[in-house]
Amino acid sequence: MIENRQLIYGLVVVAGLILTWLIYADQGVEPVKAVAVEEEPLILVDGKVPPKLSNLPPHMEYIDESTCLMCHATEGEMNFGSGPVVAKKMPHVFRENCASCHIAPK
Predict the structure, then answer these.
(1) Which pLDDT tens digit goes with each residue over 91-100?
(2) Do the beta carbons of residue 96 and residue 63 sit within 8 Å?
(3) Is residue 41 a contact partner of residue 52, using CB atoms and an 8 Å limit?
(4) Which of 30, 59, 64, 85 has the fewest other C-beta atoms within 10 Å?
(5) Phi and psi of 10, rounded to 5°?
(6) Cα(4)–Cα(10) distance, integer angstroms
């Protein structure tokens, strides 16, 4: 009888553990997504990935193409308060929607 009692207690403990696992195992916890996943543009230009935009103030919010051309129609030096920066001339023909290829910083 003592052996049966230990067997019954053991089965009750195992059943309790299984029940606890069933209740708490699926709590809708999503797997952690990679934090440093980098976006890539959908369009390649001449087989090259377009450069990502830097954290300069004009790049932080895409307005329109004419705003981009104010700096990138010709190569020139500009100063946004943190020292001189060279705005390189756009190396391709004009295309609408600069942000479709060049990813703006977040």
Answers:
(1) 888 878 887 7
(2) no
(3) no
(4) 30
(5) -65, -45
(6) 10
